[in-house]
Design brief:
The chain has 557 residues and is an alpha+beta fold. It has helices at residues 15-27, 38-43, 63-73, 88-96, 109-155, 205-230, 238-256, 330-333, 345-353, 360-375, 426-440, 447-468, 517-525; strands at 7-11, 31-35, 49-55, 80-84, 101-105, 166-173, 179-189, 192-203, 260-268, 273-279, 284-288, 293-297, 315-318, 324-328, 384-391, 415-420, 476-484, 487-494, 528-534, 538-545. It is flat.
């Protein structure tokens, strides 16, 4: 028997039809497997079967049920349905369910053979297409891996480790795509440090290569002007450097139809000034330590690569010890919730404002943690790129620090996080408190005590939302967990209206008054409660809880 053309399966409960079909296809060079009902057909399916012919009306499993099984478990086979002439509606349903075609009984043998040949050819073509798609996907994955290597080795510079007067933290967390984000740090002398942060339009390896080329041009120009400065020339300002790079790259960028947004900033410690050129990049956040406010720094320059660009404008801002600057990519502000809400510049600014006393690496970590919580994912649509430069007094200076945004602080380092004045945040707050309590005192706090602490914290945050912020949403509430003298401490910072607990009415348990119970709950769960006003009009609520005893000195059970 010649079976060179491959194997097919025939399923029909009519023995006469099975015999006729078997002889027909064996004569045409196929190996035939015959099944007398749908269940037997499913049991005899195998990966080497090229085509399936199914009768619509069969016992146990009918043709539609067999078809659905094949679609689910044997992708790559498109069955042909056999139907009586009055079963056209069922045949149409089968076509909608993935059948290749149908033919009515009695059937034309040559037409049926031609239909099977066509189904096999179509399935083979689809299989080849899937193979090509798999190869393309593999090639794309290799491209992404290559671009990621380019990104890490060529695009991201390392901050100086011994530059006195500033602390620097930087991080890039790649997205599932590869972008053209880049940054670098250039030490001019002991008093001047340049910071370059940029982003190439588009994604993928082309953008990564353009980012590497742009950064290379900057380093080349800086090396050239540095040599000129050694010969007695004045070291050029950032606007002159950017202009030279634009002149060198404009024709390439026009040919490639791309552009680059960037911020080139020079920190001059001698004059306490930051001079910068902004070319359409995300607005830099400048935190002012003396006032507790944030400024958003931007220029009027077009991105690099735009033709007929006017001379680049140089902007100057003054800074003081404790000030810090946050440079970032749009991966931060465009992080999105599943419902489509974006994190946004305003939310980022409020978050940064609440990081006044944190070192740069903790600032980046808190930003990352809050964006992850907001979006519900640690994977972003775009790269998460952030650079923080903090001005430090000489007596408190540390060496430059490189942030590790994926590393959580371990006890005894306080755990901190910024929330927003929205009652929907209470669930996040409770999870944060529970995790923090277990991190600080993993063995000394039992389940009941943690639940009571969660309750007290919920009352504090609710009071801040309703009274300090008077119900206004999206205002910052910073919460930190630590320990002090064997006590668990939880601090809440807000910039709302001040609160005086002595003016709050005590609760009445006769049902005549609704208010006052929150303070009562807080005071009976925490061992010590402090309300105070700190600098920059920041309110602080501080709870102290001793793990070895219950509230108000009662021993833990």
């Amino acid at each position: 028997m010649n079976t060179a053309r491959g194997k097919i399966l025939i399923a029909d409960d009519d023995p006469t039809v099975r015999i006729v079909l078997t002889k027909l296809f064996e004569k045409s060079g196929f190996e035939v497997i015959a099944a007398q009902n749908g269940r037997e057909a499913v049991e005899r399916l195998s990966r080497d079967i090229l085509a399936v012919i199914l009768d619509l009306e069969m016992p146990e499993l009918d043709g539609i049920e067999c078809l659905r099984y094949i679609q689910q478990h044997m992708g790559g086979i498109s069955p042909i349905m056999l139907t009586a002439s009055e079963d056209i509606s069922s045949a149409v349903e089968a076509m909608r369910s993935g059948a290749f075609d149908y033919i009515t009984k009695p059937f034309n043998p040559q037409k049926l053979i031609a239909l099977v040949d066509k189904a096999i050819a179509t399935d083979a073509q689809a299989k080849r297409l899937r193979q090509v798609e798999a190869e393309l996907a593999k090639a794309r994955e290799q491209e992404i891996e290559m671009a990621a290597r380019i990104q890490q080795t060529l695009l991201m510079g390392a901050p100086p480790q011994n530059f006195k007067g500033v602390e620097i933290a930087n991080t890039t967390i790649p997205s599932h795509k590869v972008d053209g984000d880049f940054y670098d740090f250039i030490v001019i002398d002991s008093q001047r440090l340049d910071v370059l942060v940029g982003d190439v339009m588009g994604k993928g390896i082309a953008s990564a290569l353009m980012g590497a080329a742009t950064k290379s041009y900057f380093l080349r120009v800086i090396r050239e002007v540095g040599c000129s400065a050694c010969q007695g020339d004045v070291y050029p300002e950032p606007d002159a450097i950017v202009s030279r790079v634009q002149a060198a790259m404009i024709h390439q960028m026009e040919a490639l139809e791309t552009f680059v947004t960037l911020c080139y900033a020079r920190f001059d410690l001698a004059s306490s000034q930051m001079r910068f050129v902004d070319c359409g990049h995300m607005r830099t956040i400048h935190y002012h330590c003396q006032t507790g406010d944030c400024s958003l720094l931007e220029g009027v320059n077009m991105p690099l690569g735009f033709p007929e660009t006017l001379p680049f404008t140089l902007n100057t801002v003054s800074f003081a010890p404790g000030d810090f600057f946050v440079f970032y990519s749009d991966g931060l502000t465009e992080a999105m919730t599943p419902e489509g809400r974006i994190f946004g510049e305003d939310r980022l600014t409020v978050l940064v404002q609440g990081c006044a006393d944190a070192p740069p690496d903790r600032i980046i970590h808190r930003v990352w943690k809050n964006i992850v919580t907001f979006s519900g994912s640690e994977t972003f649509r775009d790269d998460f790129t952030c650079v923080v430069v903090k001005i430090t007094p000489p007596d408190t200076m540390r060496a430059g620090v490189t942030a590790a945004a994926s590393t959580l602080p371990s006890s005894p380092t306080p755990t901190s996080m910024t929330f927003f004045s929205d009652l929907k945040e209470l669930s996040r707050v409770r999870h944060f408190i529970r995790d923090g309590c277990l991190a600080v005192f993993p063995r000394l706090l039992n389940e009941d005590r943690i639940s009571m602490i969660e309750l007290a914290v919920t009352e504090v945050v609710t009071n801040i939302i309703r009274h300090a912020y008077e119900g206004v949403s999206d205002r910052p509430i910073d919460i930190s967990i630590g320990f002090e003298s064997d006590a668990l401490t939880i601090e809440f910072l807000d910039q709302g209206k001040s609160f005086d607990p002595n003016r709050a009415p005590p609760p009445k348990f006769d049902g005549s008054q609704e208010g006052g119970f929150g303070l009562y709950i807080i005071s009976h769960i925490a061992d010590d409660v402090v309300y105070e006003k700190r600098r920059n009009n920041t309110n602080c609520t501080r709870l102290k809880i001793y793990p070895g005893r219950g509230a108000n000195g009662d021993p833990d059970i």
